[in-house]
Specification:
The structure is a homodimer of 422-residue chains. The first copy, chain A, is α/β, with parallel strands linked by helices and 422 residues long. Chain A has 2 domains: 5-151 and 350-398, NAD(P)-binding Rossmann-like Domain (Rossmann fold, 3-Layer(aba) Sandwich); 156-345, Dihydrodipicolinate Reductase, domain 2, CATH 3.30.360.10. Chain A has helices at residues 12-23, 25-28, 38-50, 71-81, 95-105, 127-130, 136-142, 156-168, 195-200, 243-250, 264-276, 294-301, 341-348, 352-369, 386-396, 416-421, and strands spanning 5-8, 31-35, 61-65, 85-88, 108-111, 146-148, 171-181, 205-210, 213-218, 223-228, 232-239, 255-261, 284-285, 291-292, 315-326, 329-340, 378-380, 401-404, 410-411. In chain A, strands 10-11-12-7-15-16-18-19 form an 8-stranded mixed sheet. The mean pLDDT of chain A is 94. The interface between A and B is medium-sized, with 27 and 27 residues. Chains A, B: It comes from Lampropedia aestuarii. Chains A, B: This is Saccharopine dehydrogenase family protein. Chains A, B: It holds the Pfam family Sacchrp_dh_NADP.
């Protein structure tokens, strides 16, 4: 049985993961957290102690300085700590170096977002095939468990897609993943993560899987408005997202789209900044001769995303609207989670968006430790048993619900003893 | 008779002034243009030659490098050139040094905007009394002609106020100066003059003269919509402006307000930039350690105002809406000018806003040269005879019109022979 966890990354999601690992350290064993900036790791550890989050108060919880771009350094840290599960929550450029270190050491690998080449940001589909899936064969050869994209989206929504396909439909026509943050940080404007990355996602083309092929649109070109559980009427925009690629390959569904909610205010500010040229990564020359990258200045004047958590209120709603047929009848279900920013902050000191990304990663680590998900190959979440994952998240603070016309919304959970027996 | 002109400043308005002086150089004599950057002066001179604008082709037209903050340097240039009329179109910080040089040399002084102390931008009323009017006594003592604020607004609108008070009303209740630029530069966003100055005007309080006292409001707090000649329905916002101060002191009118037209798009962009902190003059520190003043970066990414002129289309409408009583009847008149960006560019190579500011300054210089306005003291435009000024501008490209309910709009001009005889 694998145990002992190394968390790479000490941002908002890393903090959630550290708290959640601490809450389950009788099973997970030693917990190590590493970042380029060890002070961030120490702050996370302080936060875990403040909340008294360690299930086994005598358990190991240690901070490490690490350049995760350096495969050898990651390998040495894995060996030094004896970690058998690596939860990679670092920035998007380190996936391949961390994965390589796991391959070399035999540790299980987990991440929550696709790899990005620093030189080729915003790559086009096929996304996972650009980097991750090129290591599928070696992972299978060496028996390496590598679970890709195991935050909320990608991650939980992949499990929801598998759930719908396997349990609610004979044929699925479309899966629309809808991601709404109806929370408010109380600032005039802020991004929920690094503005340099955040804005970059929306400046180019967006991709969707429609009629079993890739289709490209402009950002903010296509929108939908839904009346959603708890958060009510919300408008979301067609956006490209990692999981569209793996779902399009792993499930036989002709239409898979991702929709990200944006308020009019967000879009307006984004549009003004972009059109004026303030989101550019190319330096401009000021009258005084300074060379300045506009996007770096915008980052400097916007609130630090980490500073938003204490004042964040409201809820997120993320789910899959699935349409298809069952027993010859048209059917439509919405499988979703609602998370609360205030509750997340009270429990783990991060806001709700970090919470929804960090909890699934730790749930996956627990399932690896328990053996259920220790599959000794590279997989995306839709390829794994979704029942224990959904059950475990129900216990860990992310509940899964089902909305279907004519019925009350209900919690989804599984009687696993019965399932195991079947 | 004074002649020989020194123009200080080679921006858009300086260019208009140079062309207009050239068109009248049989009367005005030698024309000199000075700027910190002599290349700008040379470009203006090239433009004058390209248009064949010199009325006397053999007349003197020369460029000079000048730091106009340096009184001694200005005095030396006045002495060196033999200029007897100085048209100060430099930035707002040089008024007092240039005026002092005129006082020391006996040259007549003209400007188009109020003096600003570099350390005390956006001063509160009483504006002219803060700096200019402190030199009234010495100008009177030495017989120095100093005409303050002689562009369009302040300037022409001051003459319109005097015209209304003297010719159309027994008592005036209110003067609303409305400044609309209904032109389009075809860019997503641009300011019509230096963005650092432009934005600064609107970031604080705005002042108006109401019920015979100063009143303060926030920018964009109070708006009005008027159906105006040529430019149609336009929304304008209560703004502070130089001329409110002198008019409040020189005319017995209880309500004098200034309204600047802004499109919703302008206000939106301005609001986003301001609220995010990008209009700040205080340096911020980037991740790479650079210290950057946000407003300077915004200036660098916005189009150079001087670059807008070739593509500028549409018209400006600036005028005074005056309400009061005449012969016991309520009366309301709108005295206005409409200028055309394309026509201005074709004639003098600048857009319409520069044109409306530069032509009145040269008209004033001509009236000084002719003696009519060579009053040998410091005055604001409303204290001077408005008839010859309005007549002369009619000939120089800025026509004055009157709108009154129930009548067709008509040109305002005066039979000066008859006036002189009366």
């Amino acid at each position: 049985m694998k145990k002992h966890v190394l968390i790479i990354g000490a941002g908002g999601v890393g903090q959630v993961a550290a708290h959640k690992c601490a809450q389950h350290n009788r099973l997970l064993g030693d917990i190590h957290i590493a970042s380029r900036n060890i002070k961030k790791c120490l702050a996370v550890i302080d936060s875990v102690h403040e909340k008294g989050a360690l299930q086994n108060p005598k358990g190991v919880l240690k901070a490490h300085q690490l350049d995760a771009m350096d495969t050898a350094a990651v390998r040495r840290l894995i060996e030094h700590t004896g970690a058998q599960i690596v939860i990679n929550l670092g920035h998007a450029f380190v996936n391949m170096s961390v994965l390589q270190a796991c391959i070399e050491t035999g540790a299980a690998y987990l991440d929550t977002a696709i790899h990005e080449d620093p030189e080729k940001i915003c790559e086009t589909p096929p996304w996972y095939a650009n980097h991750e899936w090129k290591r599928k064969a070696i992972c299978a050869d060496r028996g390496i468990t590598a679970i890709l994209g195991c935050g909320f989206d990608p991650g939980v929504v992949n499990a929801y897609a598998a759930l719908a396909v396997h349990e609610y439909f004979d044929t699925v026509d479309s899966i629309d993943i809808i991601d709404i943050n109806a929370g408010s940080h109380g600032k005039y404007f802020a991004t929920n993560f690094n503005p340099e990355i955040n804005f970059r996602e929306f400046t180019g083309q967006v991709w969707s899987w429609q009629n079993s092929q890739w289709r490209s649109n402009k950002m903010f070109e296509i929108q939908r408005t839904d009346d959603l559980p708890v958060v009510g009427k919300q408008t979301a925009y067609l956006t490209g997202h990692d999981e569209l690629h793996s779902l399009s390959q792993n499930l036989n569904v002709p239409n898979i789209r991702f929709w990200m909610g944006f308020g009019e205010h967000y879009i307006n500010v984004f549009t003004v900044l972009r059109n004026i040229g303030l989101l550019s990564e190319k330096p401009v020359t000021l009258d005084n001769g300074q060379q300045v990258v506009p996007l770096q200045l915008v980052k400097a004047v916007l609130p630090d995303p980490a500073s938003l958590a204490p004042g964040y209120i409201g809820k997120t709603c993320i789910g899959n609207l699935v349409k298809g047929h069952k027993d010859g009848q048209a059917r439509e279900v919405f499988v979703y989670n609602v998370a609360d920013h205030v509750e997340a902050f009270a429990e783990v000191g991060s806001q709700g968006i970090s919470y929804t990304a960090g909890v699934p990663a730790v749930a996956a680590a627990i399932l690896i430790a328990q053996g259920t998900w220790d599959v000794q190959k590279m997989v995306n979440v839709e390829e794994l048993p979704y029942q224990p994952f959904i059950n475990l998240m129900n216990q860990m603070g992310l509940t899964t619900h089902l909305r279907e016309a004519g019925q009350d919304d209900c919690l989804i959970s599984f009687d696993l003893a019965e399932l195991d027996a079947s």
